[in-house]
Amino acid sequence: MAKEKKGVRLEHISKIYKDPKTGKDFYAVKDANLEIEPGSFVTLLGPSGCGKTTTLRMIAGFESPDEGEIYLGNEPINALTPNKRDTAMVFQSYALLPHYNIFDNVAYGLKLRKMDKNVIKKKVTDILDLVGLQGMENRMTNQLSGGQQQRVALARALVIEPGVLLFDEPLSNLDAKLRVSMRTEIRRIQQEAGITAVYVTHDQSEAMAISDKVIIMNKGIVEQISTPQEAYYYPNNQFVADFIGEANFLKATVEGQDMVNINGSKVKCATGSLSAGNECNVVLRPEGAALTDNGTVKAKVVYSCFMGPYQDYHVMVGDTLVKIQDYNPKNSKIYKVGDEAFLSFAENTLYAL
Ligand code: ATP
């Protein structure tokens, strides 16, 4: 449906704001270098204030970068106003026209472009089909649920066939259940439309569910650009490990190639470029270990709770508290508070930073 799938490239992009409290300049975004492939779904992810919305707004043209250049396809776009850019934005607040029906809301951008009436009708009907609002052309937008309003907002953005679709936390006004079903819908619609999408959220599960790649930001800095799997299994640093899913950090020393020493025990662990003798932190996901009677790393149980799919343990490894989710507890021994046990690590689960 899109005329042409376009990629987006940010080269050394920075945005400086003045802190209203201190009056001092600070980098809301600092030296961001990104390449978003045509047709891919990429999410800017990070805690509140990390600079993700500012980055999106610079791509849309609502803010201009203080340093660097943004490209849409091969075209530098810093100098273009938002309406001259081949982008469309879906907002958190929907931004619909309240006294118009669905058809007129969706047709609005096409009428501005002075398109032929019959062409507009066909395009609007096709897009309403795509977003699941077929037959609802005449409903007023103030008679719609939040989820339906967001579909109209999505249809309005898609109908002008932008090269890139931008989403600013589009689901944050919806309840939890609807958020989950709408994110699957957004992904389906993006794939069917074959459009490049850049999406902002602070919800890591939303980002994991929807994205080809995640761009994880912290205090204006891009910390990692990778698939969600890479960010989970091979985080670049402790911030990413902690932000994506839950992580334990076990103090260790590198013993040699892919071998570390945790609390006096040698354990297999991916060590990357770290060399023997280096102090490191080993990232352990809660599901990456189970408790056993015989093993290497000693653990003392300080909390044990049945959660259905898993037994939730907190154990002490030396003076470090480690959280373990031992799946399928029906078929394993349950340890109680005060028990001594060992950690048994799943294959290829440990990663040293
Ligand atoms: P959130 O999830 O809370 O929306 P975010 O990651 O999208 O956060 P931004 O909105 O990009 O963060 O803001 C980055 C930083 O820049 C924040 O510290 C914010 O307070 C600040 N900021 C944003 N807009 C302005 C502005 N117009 N003037 C001054 N500071 C600003």
Describe the structure.
This protein is of the alpha+beta class and 353 residues long. The chain has 2 domains: 8-238, Rossmann fold (3-Layer(aba) Sandwich); 247-352, Nucleic acid-binding proteins (OB fold (Dihydrolipoamide Acetyltransferase, E2P), Beta Barrel), CATH 2.40.50. Helix content is 24%, strand content 35%. The protein contains 8 helices and 20 strands. It has helices at residues 52-60, 102-112, 117-130, 146-159, 176-193, 204-210, 228-233, 238-243; strands at 8-18, 25-36, 41-45, 67-72, 75-76, 87-90, 164-168, 196-201, 213-218, 221-226, 248-256, 259-262, 265-268, 279-284, 289-292, 297-306, 310-317, 320-327, 340-345, 351-352. The strands form 4 sheets. It has a 6-stranded mixed beta sheet, sandwiched between helices. A 5-stranded antiparallel beta sheet has the order 13-12-11-14-20. The chain has a 5-stranded antiparallel beta sheet with strand order 15-19-16-17-18, with no helix packed on it. Helix 2 packs across helix 3 (117-130) and helix 2 packs parallel to helix 4 (146-159). The longest helix is centred in the middle third of the chain and has 18 residues, at 176-193. 38% of the residues are buried. The structure holds adenosine-5'-triphosphate. Adenosine-5'-triphosphate binds at residues 17-18, 28, 46, 48-54, 202.
How would you summarize the topology of this molecule?
Elements: E1 8-18, E2 25-36, E3 41-45, H1 52-60, E4 67-72, E5 75-76, E6 87-90, H2 102-112, H3 117-130, H4 146-159, E7 164-168, H5 176-193, E8 196-201, H6 204-210, E9 213-218, E10 221-226, H7 228-233, H8 238-243, E11 248-256, E12 259-262, E13 265-268, E14 279-284, E15 289-292, E16 297-306, E17 310-317, E18 320-327, E19 340-345, E20 351-352
